[in-house]
Amino acid sequence: MTHAAPVHVWLADSPAPVLAGEFTHDSAGPVGRFRYDASYLAARHPPLAPDLPLRSRPFAVAGGHGIFPLFMDAGPDAWGRHLLARRLERDVSEVEALMLCPTDGVGNIAMGEIMPERQRVLSVDEFLTILSGLEAGGQAQTDQEEQVLDAAQYGTSLGGTKPKLTVSRDGVHYLAKFPQQGDSRWLPHIECAMLKLAEACGIGTCKDPEVWHLSAGRAVLLLRRFDRTTTPAGVLRKGYVSAHALLRLDLATPAPAETLHYGTVGFTSQGLRKSYVSLAEGMARWCGGQAAHRGERRELWRRIVFNALIRNLDDHSKNHGLLCEDMVQQRWRLAPAFDLVPATALPQNPALSMGYRYVPGTRRGRQPLPPRLVTTVDAGDLVAAAADHYGYAPEEAQEALHAIAAIIADQWRKMMSAEGVPGEEIRRFETTFGFAEALAT
Ligand SMILES: Nc1ncnc2c1ncn2[C@@H]1O[C@H](COP(=O)(O)OP(=O)(O)OP(=O)(O)O)[C@@H](O)[C@H]1O
Ligand SMILES: [Mg+2]
């Protein structure tokens, strides 16, 4: 099956999107192609991303779903796909999902025709009115009512990703994250506390996170959208690329031998590809200059340390990304940190989702050593990695690690308590934060 869809982009200074080009997709292959529109090139608009420089020849992408990784970020997650499939009463392919989903995806790109119904954003008041109507026994009939119902019922029909909605309040766009079935009811409070704790550690985070209280003791995490800015002219958008897309992970299929290999030496080229080490390197082309790249690598290391110390072990490649601060200059910076959740059930050797230190193998000497990719949380490895990959001097990294541990040890309880987390819930995290407390002393 083939599809052709316009690709629109919101340029930095306008609330209305412009046509950037056309995406064609052939599911046999699958292979995708993108070609800038002649009008976009003639207007001398900026490129969409460093890997899509301006030119009239098409770009082709093969592997994975045959879709440009940058475009995938504009699409719905599993929960959004489920809403779409239910509305259409059939399964939707990845390409169709991109062409039909609401245009509230992260970043500044939308694929497919931009119909008014794709652009609708619920206001907080509309949300509450729909919710109280449903609670009074009303039936969900419209799409919006279904969405509210699903979100407020903890996304009963879908495991995996949490229900999320973009809602507007006083014209400002927020991401509302609802706990999913099985989550602690304190999750929004805890996540909110962790964002504030990260900020106290000097990490760039979503500003002013809030816990939004609904009826019946239900709470939602409300985050101002970092890729939207409200101006008198309307809402502006910034480009976004997830680490997953930047590293083109969807396009690479690991060979079966890789998995076997991992069992023996703990290293695979796929693991390295999907690592903080590769992200630190790969950001170079997006940052626009060595000095900026070093700044972002250092910030990335602080986030690695923070994740390691709060035991956020779900720090996967879609939980990091870059925001476009200047399309013309193609200057991208790490987006504010998000999805910071401490684990309570800790494995024996807690490990991050992505490798943060790479030690090449050696063939010399009597005992050749295989390469190593470190994911297990270890203070020595964190400091060594800082110097190897993230632009720190070793002593400086040692100090920074200690300083972050000290702030976490001092403030984690206070921050949780300030969000209203009760004492017995806070105590469930004592082992989690024990590592930071031990490092701090
Ligand atoms: N403040 C924000 N502004 C704009 N987009 C955001 C913001 N926070 C998160 N996002 C985007 O929304 C996506 C989902 O957010 P988040 O990772 O917090 O949810 P999640 O459901 O907990 O994810 P996971 O599937 O990792 O558990 C992120 O991958 C990111 O692209
Ligand atoms: Mg996430």
Biggest beta sheet attributes: 5 strands, antiparallel
CATH topology of the largest domain: Phosphatidylinositol 3-kinase Catalytic Subunit, Chain A, Domain 5
Level-1 CATH class name of the largest domain? Mainly Alpha
For the record, give the distance between the C-alpha atoms at the N and C termini, rounded to a whole number. 62 Å
**CATH-scheme architecture of the largest domain:** Orthogonal Bundle
- The average pLDDT score comes to 92
Structural class: alpha+beta
Rg, Cα atoms, Å: 23 Å
Q: How many distinct domains? A: 3
Please estimate the helix content.
Answer: 25-40%
The distinct ligands, each listed once, are: adenosine-5'-triphosphate, magnesium ion
Number of helices: 18
Strand order of the largest sheet: 4-3-2-1-5
What is the strand tally?
17
Describe the overall structure.
The relative contact order is 0.10. The chain has helices at 38-42, 69-72, 78-88, 94-100, 116-119, 124-135, 143-152, 187-200, 243-246, 256-265, 269-273, 276-282, 284-287, 290-310, 379-389, 394-418, 423-427, 430-440; strands spanning 2-9, 18-26, 31-36, 59-62, 109-111, 122-123, 164-169, 172-177, 210-213, 219-224, 228-231, 234-237, 240-242, 321-326, 331-334, 357-359, 372-374. The strands form five sheets. A five-stranded antiparallel β-sheet has the order 4-3-2-1-5. Strands 6-7-8-10-9 form a five-stranded mixed β-sheet. A three-stranded antiparallel β-sheet has the order 13-14-15. With 441 residues, it is α+β, with helices and mostly antiparallel strands. Helix 6 (124-135) packs across helix 7 (143-152). Strand 7 (164-169) and strand 8 (172-177) form a beta hairpin. The protein folds into three domains: 2-114; 122-234, Phosphorylase Kinase, domain 1 (2-Layer Sandwich), CATH 3.30.200; 239-440, Phosphatidylinositol 3-kinase Catalytic Subunit, Chain A, Domain 5, CATH 1.10.1070. It contains 18 helices and 17 strands. The model is unreliable at 155-159 (pLDDT under 50). It binds adenosine-5'-triphosphate and magnesium ion. The site of adenosine-5'-triphosphate (ATP) has 15 residues, from strand 8.
